[in-house]
């Protein structure tokens, strides 16, 4: 299956109930939402039950403020037998660019104003399907995600087996 066909997304507004003591969105909330999306994506991809095996290489690049529009985009980046590597990227809509885009009157949902804030990587195991479909990158931009997913999955399998 082509990697770009495995995309699953969710968008939310950040409310004060998820803030930490610094007035930013709590990192645990971001991790939970990313894990829920990765789990759902893996479940839909393998068409069965999945178990979480590892959470790897989490990046907190930029804080998320109260009131931001928060986007989560997930992709299946690599598969090997019954194992699935899922990458979730979190981004926010830059509040300063949105008014400028509104003046241009382009028919988009503001994708041009997105700023990456977090990256999460998860390893899932298919409980029902011992041989999930292989995922391959069709576009050059997905090749680095594929290679990174392969490296992360192989490192996780070494830890699990040994």
Automatic annotation (TrEMBL):
Signal peptide (UniProt feature, chain positions): none
Domain of life: Eukaryota
Segments crossing the lipid bilayer: none
InterPro entries xrefs: HOTDOG_ACOT, HotDog_dom_sf
GO cellular component labels: mitochondrion
A biological process from GO: acyl-CoA metabolic process
Keywords noted in UniProt: Hydrolase, Repeat, Transit peptide
Presence of keyword Repeat: yes
Domain HotDog ACOT-type: start-end pairs: 4-130
A molecular function GO annotation: fatty acyl-CoA hydrolase activity
Family in the record: Belongs to the acyl coenzyme A hydrolase family.
Descriptive protein name: HotDog ACOT-type domain-containing protein
Native species: Caenorhabditis nigoni
Gene that produces this protein: Cnig_chr_II.g8119
């Amino acid at each position: 299956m082509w990697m770009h066909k495995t995309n699953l997304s969710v968008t939310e507004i950040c409310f004060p109930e998820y803030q930490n003591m610094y007035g930013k969105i709590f990192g645990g909330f971001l991790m939970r939402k990313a894990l829920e999306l990765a789990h759902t994506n893996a479940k839909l991809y393998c068409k069965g039950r999945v178990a979480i095996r590892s959470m790897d290489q989490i990046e907190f690049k930029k804080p998320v403020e109260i009131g931001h529009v928060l986007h989560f985009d997930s992709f299946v980046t690599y598969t090997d037998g019954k194992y699935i590597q899922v990458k979730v990227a979190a981004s926010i809509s830059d509040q300063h660019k949105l008014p400028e885009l509104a003046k241009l009157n382009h028919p988009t949902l503001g994708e041009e104003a997105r700023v990456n804030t977090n990256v999460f990587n998860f390893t899932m195991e298919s409980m029902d399907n011992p041989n999930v479909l292989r995922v391959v990158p069709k576009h050059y931009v997905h090749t680095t995600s594929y290679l990174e997913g392969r490296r992360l999955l192989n490192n996780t399998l070494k830890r699990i087996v040994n």
